[in-house]
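User: Predict the structure for this protein chain, please.
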Amino acid sequence: MNPLSSNYFVTFDLWQTLIFDDPELVWAHAQMRCEGLREVLSSRGLSLSLDALLEAHEESASQFEAIWRRNDHVSTIDQIRLIVHVASGNGIDLPRDSSVSKMLERAYIEPLFAHPPRLNEDALVTLNGMRDRVRGVGLISNTGRSPGVALRELLQKLGILKFFDATVFSDEAGCRKPDKRIFDLATGELGAEPGNTIHIGDNPEADVWGAKQAGMRAVLFDYPVPEAFKQEPGSLFALSRTDGQVAGSEIKPDARIKSLRDALLFVDSLS
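Assistant: Here is the predicted structure, written as structure tokens:
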């Protein structure tokens, strides 16, 4: 299909669609993140044990998920403040020194690059194929512990940032999927109409129900919660899948795919 003859636009989810956050990575990231925070704090005369930081880090997941479920945002430095506050038994409030904040933020974000998530093996062929089929390609991603600015850097390193005409991250948008506004923001940046836009993602509520509420078509990338994540019910991924507020009967994708490259077949079927 010649893109000039296509009226369609496509947007993708990021986590567990284009990239995978494996259970082993979650632990490695937590360990490295807390070690980095401890080193920065120690350099400023603030002593906290690694165990205390790790425990606070784990506890923070449910607190952050509750905040995100309200469609609110927790900045990177505020996430760090909460973890440090809890790890210290509510005895340490971080200094407001901007240089310290930058060091702490970098320590918090650095594990994303030291142990990057796994790129979906079909991501490159799918994204490249979409460029030949549609008028524009966008990305709509809720952020967790990694802000949009870091995720763009990651996408650049993974070699896929170049495929997107618009990248919309919740921490920058001020709202999260399934909020209609974040989908509207993406279609606006693409110069697209919702009715001519197809969203592809793995989360039934955030990606499918949210996109449909925004007037878009929705393709569910049927990626099940891995068993290892089920054994860690406090992980952000597990919480995002189990804390739904929309009945399953209300979630009706236009298509279900097991392989990301099958999204190309769905787009072809619309021509």
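The beta strands are 9-12, 19-20, 118-119, 136-141, 166-169, 197-201, 217-221, 255-257.
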